[in-house]
Amino acid sequence: MEEKSLLQKLRSYPPAVFFMLGNEFCERFSFYGMKTILFIYLITEHEFSPSKATFIYHLFTCIAYLTPLIGSIMADSVFGRFKVILYGSTIYVVGHVLLSLGAVPFLSYPIRSSLDFSGLFVIAFATGCIKPCVSAFAADQFTEDQKDLRSQFFSFFYFAINGGSLFAIIITPILRGRVQCFGNQHCFPLAFGVPGVLMLLALVLFLLGWSQYRKYPPSKENVGSKVIAVIYTSLRKMVGGASRDKPVTHWLDHAAPEHSQKMIDSVRGLLNVAVIFCPLIFFWALFDQQGSTWVLQARRLDGRVGHFSILPEQIHAINPICVLILVPIFEGWVYPALRKVTKVTPLRKMAVGGLLTAFSFAIAGVLQLKVNETMEFPPTLGRIYLQRVGNESLITDFRFKNSGELIGDGMLPKGRTELDAGIYTFNTGIKNESQEIDISIQNKGYVMAVFRLDQGVKVVKFDYKVEKTDNGATRVFVVSAKDDENTLVYAINKKGKILSSCELKSGSYVDVIPGIISDPNVRLYWGPKSSCSGADCPNTVALNAQMGAVHVLHIHPSTTEDDFNLLVRPNSVSILWSLPQYIIITLGEVLLSVTGLEFAYSQAAPNMKSVLTAMWLLTVFAGNLIDMMISGTRLIPHPALEFFFYSILMVIVMGVFILLAMQYTYIEDNDEEITITESEKKDVIALTEIESGTATSDKKE
């Protein structure tokens, strides 16, 4: 019989599944759209410390992977899959509305916080509830004689998953960081709002197929409770000594005769497989930091690649891209080649995958050490930085006002000096005039400009944050002996576009934020706003805009590039140096995560599949719980040491895993009993693969 063409097969699909494809694409975009920018939102808008932002980020993920247990119970025992998806999607939209409203900057902080965190909880609860239902409900639309079509459909289903998540990871950071709104350089209301609109569209697409869906009633089957009952019965009898006179080969055999031998054997197989999930807990602890600690590292990398600029969150798109490339390469060439020289087993693949994941964090630690060399650390406790500029060359008798203690030799040099916070006096100018400066706010940076004028000496002071700029910006403070509100300073790119402007007033600044495609070479122009409006201004100086840098520019009649003074060093380590760690952790994912679930399914009884799914989801939950306890509490204060700690921890875990794997006896596949079909395998893998936005291979090893 001649095989049908792809178009003929598509025409044979139940019409309802096309609504599910659109629904899945939009829902994945909405989830990853908000999650991709969540970490930076918590740092920039809520001004949380990195550790607190990490704690909340992983708490959100924990809830999102604990609530699927609730969703599956509701679908199997109460409402059925259709109603759980319907109710969950509706609540999902409400969560996005709350989060988008909370991002509006002119609302009071208590209102914003209430909207934000209620929205996050609602989204985590809703996505968790529908997570175990969507792919299974889509599979329900096929009849038993359409198994081949159902298997093929899942390829399209995973394309929808990957497409939605990949586009979200690329697009929403652009809406966040390259669009300005409400007078803010970040546009979080839009960046959260667009995913909200996509979730609303997902709900609409789901509703459009209402009349065509096959809706099955809840099965009322609860295998999980039976597993717990078997374990409880065995433990109760062991503790109570009720079966000491009856020797058994395994402690679970004590559950007889209350439970059937088939059920006891199934639980025994389940517990044997459970050990395979142990390294997965630590794998997820490392893997999910791509959205938190790795983003934090990427914020201090130079995102310029030629004329392109990459935002910190966007580098995570490497993961799904690499999986789409690596999976067919491994299945088509790597595994077949290795089988010619050695035996390739699932446990060996998992061991290599875990070690590669550990290696990726070792690389991240080395990269962090290089980043640390470019960091601008704040003054030590109780001290400040003082940056001296201006045309006055002589400052003498620099001392504390209260104690009169002379600082050094009393000569304050140009450039940056670290001092104790306080009030100081000094002499300057031809007439040796006495001056006073208050720099008493601790851990700040101050600019002090001393100008010699015809009528005497003028001292100008302003403070700045001793930290790198956010959003890839280059900040330039202006300082002048004569402030003039009628004179404007413009930052203009090579195309003549005004990027930013400010008044010629000491302490004012312009921010040069790179576009998606932009040239780092810009020019600053200034002149009276009544006679010029940008590049037509008579005064100009060139600026090489470097991400993260902060400068102060002394503006005077003959300003040149030499009048720039660097306050905060730029990000000088390229973001491309983070590619190795992303590629290697993706290799670890392909070898460990995907293989682990497929192996577990091949070794457990068919009636344990739903329990395996629950255990799989709980590994993600437990992994993020570890992140909350370590990274979220700043247990290890230095980022590089923290990366090395996770790497060593994963090596230790994999060492124990290898020892256990060496003792493991494989259960050979039995087609009649425990072989997992492709559609079933994909159905379950969907539960966690959507977390990384990746697809898995259709081939079973």
TrEMBL record:
Transmembrane stretches in the record are 55-79, 91-111, 117-139, 151-176, 188-210, 269-287, 317-338, 350-369, 579-599, 611-631, 643-662
Tell me which GO cellular component terms the UniProt record holds.
Answer: apical plasma membrane; plasma membrane
UniProt keyword Transmembrane present: yes
| GO molecular function ontology, one term from the record | proton channel activity
Where is this protein localized, as stated in its record?
Membrane
Record keywords, A-Z: Membrane, Peptide transport, Protein transport, Transmembrane, Transmembrane helix, Transport
**Main localisation:** membrane
For biological process, the GO terms are: dipeptide import across plasma membrane; protein transport
Q: Report whether Ribonucleoprotein shows up as a keyword of the record.
A: no
- PROSITE patterns, A to Z: PTR2_1, PTR2_2
InterPro entries in the cross-refs = MFS_trans_sf, Oligopep_transport, POT_fam, PTR2_symporter_CS
Looking up CDD domains in the UniProt record yields: MFS_SLC15A1_2_like
Topology with regard to the membrane?
Multi-pass membrane protein
Q: Which family does it belong to?
A: Belongs to the major facilitator superfamily. Proton-dependent oligopeptide transporter (POT/PTR) (TC 2.A.17) family.
Name this protein carries in UniProt: Protein CBR-PEPT-3
Gene designation: pept-3
